[in-house]
């Protein structure tokens, strides 16, 4: 329980005082099934479902870190190749979530593109890296 007092009460009734200003807590919850409304409110939890938001904001954020030339090549590839794959993953419902798959894909792509950061590569090479 996280209440208005600077005390965190654990499930086993242990109480942890949070009196120091340099103490901060970060929670990563799998779900909020057992959380009280007060805990959710005090934690400042914001829930955005995949159905409401979609996966494109993650792609747009990632693309914004790339150079303009790379964006112009990568955006159509994402829309024409990744979009159908993620839709298929959503329909199947098995395995990791589509956002987890997308995040992993973007991390891998980022790593592969970093190897060519010092080299001026053309659009065809970007396509090949993306398809790999």
Textual characterization of the structure:
This protein is mostly helical. The chain has helices at residues 37-43, 50-53, 56-64, 68-92, 98-114, 123-131, and strands at residues 7-9, 15-17. It has a two-stranded antiparallel sheet with strand order 1-2.
Provide a concise account of the structure shown:
By secondary structure, this protein is mainly alpha-helical. Helix content is 54%, strand content 5%. It is elongated, with a radius of gyration of 21 Å.
The largest sheet has its strands arranged as 1-2
Assembly category:
single chain
User: How would you state the average pLDDT, rounded?
Assistant: 77
Order of helices and strands: EEHHHHHH
Structural class: mainly alpha
Helix content: 40-55%
Rg to the nearest angstrom? 21 Å
Q: What's the overall geometry?
A: elongated
Low-confidence stretches: none
Number of DSSP helical runs: 6
Tags for this model:
mainly alpha; two-stranded antiparallel sheet; 132 residues; elongated; 2 strands
SSE layout and pairings?
Layout lengths: L6 E3 L5 E3 L19 H7 L6 H4 L2 H9 L3 H25 L5 H17 L8 H9 L1
Antiparallel strand pairs: 1-2
Helix pairs in contact: 4-5, 4-6
């Amino acid at each position: 329980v996280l209440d208005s007092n600077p005390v965190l009460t654990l499930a086993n009734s242990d109480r942890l005082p949070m009196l120091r200003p340099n103490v901060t807590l970060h929670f990563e919850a799998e779900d909020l099934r057992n959380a009280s409304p007060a805990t959710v409110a005090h934690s400042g939890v914001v829930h955005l479902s995949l159905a409401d938001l979609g996966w494109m904001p993650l792609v747009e954020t990632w693309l914004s870190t790339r150079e303009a030339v790379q964006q112009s090549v990568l955006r159509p590839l994402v829309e024409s190749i990744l979009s159908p794959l993620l839709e298929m993953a959503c329909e199947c419902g098995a395995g990791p979530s589509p956002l987890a798959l997308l995040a992993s894909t973007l991390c891998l792509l980022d790593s592969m593109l970093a190897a060519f950061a010092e080299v001026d590569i053309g659009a065809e090479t970007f396509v090949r890296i993306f398809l790999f």
